[in-house]
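Notebook entry, structure prediction.
Reason for the run: the old model in the group folder had no record of what sequence produced it. Starting over properly, with the input documented here first.
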Amino acid sequence: AIFLTLLKALKDENVTTPQKTYFLFSTYEEVGHGAAYVPSDVSEVIAVDMGCIGLDLTCTEYDVSICAKDSGGPYDYLMTSKLIELAKENGLKYAVDIYPRYGSDVGAALGGGNNIKGALIGPGVHASHGMERTHYSALENTINLILLYLGCKK
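New structure, fully documented this time:
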């Protein structure tokens, strides 16, 4: 939903990105090889997945989650720092967390031997793999953070 909304907004508002941008819809993220292959001209990958909510986490169903580290290790420091800075500067509701039992398509891309830097963001989602729940503002914050990171302009 986030990518489809983002792509529609880019088209409807005639917005361009200053760099070539691919959108990958992975159907194999859950088994660990969703983005094992990325085109050779890709240098950065931002995985967009759900942000976890839990007692030991700061993310809520209103936030865009910025994951600093997951079970595969830390995400790229400069990319993660830029995402945090953009969220802060633009008044987005966000949370930074570590997900020790979580993996993303960035891990699959790195495991596939791709020479990329990676980051992970997504809307805060309650009850993963159950009766999942999020709030519109989490989706909106995630879309806005992606647009800011891409440096989109009309």
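Summary: Residues 19 and 150 are 8 Å apart (CA to CA).
The old model has been moved to the deprecated folder.
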